[in-house]
Amino acid sequence: MKLSSRAKKLQPSATLAITAKEKALKSQGVDVIGFGAGEPDFDSPENVKEEAIKAIKAGFTKYTAVGGIDELKEAIINRMKLDYGLEYQKPEIIVSNGAKHTLYNLTQALFEEGDEVIVPAPYWVSYPEQITLAGADPVILDTKEEEGFKIDPVELKKLITPKTRALILNYPSNPTGATYNEIELRRIVDVAMEAGLIIISDEIYDKIIYDGIKHTPVAALGEDVKKATILVNGVSKTYAMTGWRIGYAAGDKEVINAMGKLQGQSTSNPTSISQWAALEAYRGPHDIIETRTREFEKRKNYIVERLNSIPGIKCFSPQGAFYAFPNISGYFGKRYNGKEINSSMGFTEFLLDEAKVAVVPGDSFGSDDHVRISFATSMENIVKGMDRIEEAVKKLG
Ligand SMILES: *Cc1c(COP(=O)(O)O)cnc(C)c1O
Questions:
Q1: Residue at 311 is within a domain
Q2: Angle between helices 99-110 and 253-264 (to 10 degrees)
Q3: Cα separation of 385 and 35, whole Å?
Q4: Predicted local distance difference test score (pLDDT) of residue 174
Q5: Distance, CA 1 to ligand 1 centroid (Å)?
Q6: When you count CB atoms within 10 A of the terminal residue's CB, does the N or C end of the chain come out lower?
């Protein structure tokens, strides 16, 4: 059948593809260490599961309001107030089927042909694809590893044209783990505000942050900035609830309303049971998040040290999220089995073949010099995987 040009242009999600390949190998009995995971290895909290079971038993199994139940919106609002002093009203909130869906609705609601949207690289794989799907053009703003993968406001300014509509921010970042302090954020936001851009701020890793760094939401930088910002977050990463599919946007009520119309004609409400579970996540006890983040931090410290001790690898120390993003370009031009490695995909294939370790090639995130290694896996797996990588790269001549 003839496919639409829209569908033909789409790239499959590389992270999901690698996880699938890893699972396939494992089911064949191959002992693969998987560093591909884009989700916490922890289980969803017990209180959340209990609440979901209660919701089923209580019959909360029907359609809800398209943009989410009021109780959940209130819990989200309370959370933002408690954590960051941010004030939102219910018409400024929409709950969707995961933050990915939130971002999809948002790009569909805001962008069209002729629009440009600035996406800092390395980027989360779905941003450019979703912008393209909306008919707009992603404009890539490269960041430098030596500058901690942070946006240079001067470089940002250079990319702004009369067509530029928005800037995408994602911090702590997937895949780099880079984040911003308030001063850095302000310098970036000043440039965006001066140009009248919308700021889409994906802060889904706000709670998974290291080295004593405090997360500052863009929207907390002032009332004018808050007005220009659509904040995106969800329960997937913070509460280890990826499968429940709950994300949200907070911001301008006209935009939220448009997203609601899109949702009303496509998916309708996010799963009723998941909404009650998410409500419990937001209002319930939060000590488990701190405990889990400290566990991630231990793994981060270990993995970065191990990677940096391998000749040919250079690894930036992530300040948040749960990915290491080592530079592996030191191996370009080296050979194994007669094949020359000259891309992140080449190195990923080499690791899968020779080390039985699965990582994600950096080119899908906009950097071919890197691979992404998720440390959302046990310390035992990390130790074994690092040993294997260290041994395997010795074979490269
Ligand atoms: C995981 C992730 C999301 C989407 O998460 P959902 O499960 O759809 O809520 C969005 N942005 C980034 C950067 C992510 O890593």
A1: yes
A2: 110
A3: 8
A4: 97
A5: 32
A6: N
